[in-house]
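Protein modeling request. Please complete all fields; requests missing the sequence field cannot be processed.
Requester role: graduate student
Desired output: 3D structure, C-alpha cell encoding
Chains: 1
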Amino acid sequence: MREALIAMVIFLCLASSAFASMTIWPRLPAKHRDDDTNTVVRLTANLFAVMTSLILGLMINSAKNTFESIDHNVHAYATELILLDRTLRQYGPETDAVRQPLIAYVERVVATSSQNSETTIVANQLSERLLTEIGLRLNGLTPPDAVRAFLLQDGRQRLQKVLELRWILVEQSEGAIPWPLIAMLVAWLTLIFASFGFRAPGNAITAATLMVSAALIAGAIYLILDMDVAFSGPIQISSAPLERALAELQR
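Delivered output (251 residues):
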C-alpha cells in the first residue's frame, strides 16, 4: 500500500505540474514567453532529464541487488532447515520432540508467506518462541556416543545458521532505497513535466500524452519500489523453496 500511495502522489505531482505550467504560460508577461526563455527552460529540463536517468538507473540496480540477495538468502534458509531436519533424523528417534516445533515453525512460515510472515512483529514473536523451543529441546539431549555427539553439535550449528538467516531476511525486508533519493527524483521529474507544459498547445492530444506519460513513470517507480520490498506486492520472492522444505520435513 505504501508503494502504491507513493506512485499515486508521483502521478498527481507530474500531471498537475504539467497542466499548471500549461495554464500559467499564456498569462505570463511577453518577456517571459519569448524564444530565449523557452530555450533556457528546455536546456534546464534536459539537464534534469540526464540526472533523473542516472538516479533511476541507480534505483533499479539497488532494487535488483536487494531482490536477488533476499532470493538467495531464502533458498539458503530453506536449505538449512532441510539439513537441520536431516541431522535430527540421523540422530535417532530421540529427536522427534525437537522436530515437532521445527515442523510447526516451517508450517507457519509457509502458511503466512503471502502475508509478510517474516516482517510482522507478531509473527516474529511467535516464530522466535518456536525456534527457542527447538534450541531448548536440542540442548536437553544427551548423546550416548561420539557419533551422536557430533550430530548434536552439527544440529546446533545448523540451528544457529537458521537463526542468522532469519534475522537477515527480517532486516532486508525493509528495503534499501533511501527516501531522500526518492524525494529528489520526484522533484526533478516534477520540474521536467512543468517544462513540458511550457508553451504546450492546450488540446486533447497534448493532455492525453502528458497524463499517460505521468502514469507510466509513476508505474515504473512503483515497480522499482515494490521490487525493493521483496515480501509484498506484485513482485515478491517465491515461497516455493520454503514449501519444498516443508514437504521434506513432513516426509
